[in-house]
Amino acid sequence: MKNWVYGLSLLLLLAACHKNSSLPRSGEGNHLAAKGAIKVMTYNIHHANPPSENGKIDMAAIARVINQEKPDLVALQEVDIFTERSGKKLDQALELARLTGMKSFFMKALDYQGGAYGIAVLSKHPILDSAGYLLPRDPALGGENRAVAAITVQLPGNKKIIFATTHLDLEAGNRLSQAKALIGHFEKSGLPMVLGGDFNALKGSPVIDLFDQHFTRTCLDDCAPTIPVVNPNRTIDFIMYKPTSRFKVMNTRVIDEQYASDHLPVVVELEIVD
Residue 250: which of 270, 232, 234 has the closest Cα? Predict the structure, then answer.
C-alpha cells in the first residue's frame, strides 16, 4: 500500500498509530471465519458524547455498541484525541482499542481545542501497514479539513485487504473533490478494499454516484436510515467495497442504538471470495 502514500514525513506528524495488544474475545467470529467472512462496522461516534447528555463523554457506551456486535473491523468518525471537551488525557482511539481488545490507527483531520480531531479504524486482526492523508478543501468554500485513515489487514487464511474510513465535508463542493481524491489514491492499490464512513451524502447525489462507479455499496436500495437516531430519515453512512468480484454481502444492518451517538452504526457481514 505504500506506493500510493505520499508526503510520508508530513503524514507521520499528522497520524498516530496505536497498536495495543489484542485481548481475547469469546464467541462470535468463529462461524464467519469458517466461511472466509468478516464483520465490518462503520460508526460516527460524535466524540463519544451522547446527544441526550450535554457535555458528557461516555466511552463505555461506544465500546458497548462495538462489543455487542464483535466486528472484525470498525470505521470510526468524529474521534477526539487530547481535546478540552473530551479530556486532555483521553486518546479516544486508543481507549476504544483497549475497551474492545482491538488495534487502532488514528488520522488527524484538524487541530481542535489543544488536541486533534479526526477518524480512526479498529482491527481485530494484525495491521501490516497503515497510512493517513488529508483530503482537498477549497478555502473559498469554507468547510473543514477532512482525511482518510487506511490499514492493510492480515486476515485468516493468509488473506489481505485494505480497510479505510473517511468523513467527507458538509460543503458539497469540497465533498465531491474529496471523493475524487480518495478514489484516485486507491485506484491502483492492488488489494481488495473495504471503505466505511460518514459520506454526508445521499444515494443519487453526485458524490455517491461517483463512488458507485468505483465501489459497490453493501446496501443499494431501500437502505435503512442512519441519522438522526430518533426517527431516522436519511442514509449518509455507508460501507462499500471493491472489486465487486472479491466480496459477497451476507447481510447488512443498521443498529437501533439511540443513546451513544447522534448516528446509528451500520454493520455488514462480507464473504471474501478467492
Answer: 270
CB-based contacts of 31, cutoff 8 Å, min separation 6: none
Length, in residues, of the chain: 274
- DSSP, collapsed to helix, strand or coil, labels residue 62 as helix
Is pLDDT at 18 greater than 70 in this prediction? Answer: no
- Torsion, Cα of 272, 121, 98, 8 (10° steps): 120
Answer whether residue 257 shows pLDDT above 60.
Answer: yes
Predicted TM-score of the model (pTM): 0.90
Which pLDDT belongs to residue 20? 44
Range of the domain at 190: 2-20+28-272
Taking Cα atoms as reference points, which of 198, 272, 270, 237 lies closest to residue 39?
A: 270
Q: What is the CATH number of the domain that holds 70?
A: 3.60.10.10
Q: How many domains does the chain have?
A: 1
Element spanning 67, H or E: helix 59-69
Q: How confident is the model at residue 24 (pLDDT cuts 50, 70, 90)?
A: very low
Three cell numbers written together for 164? 479505510
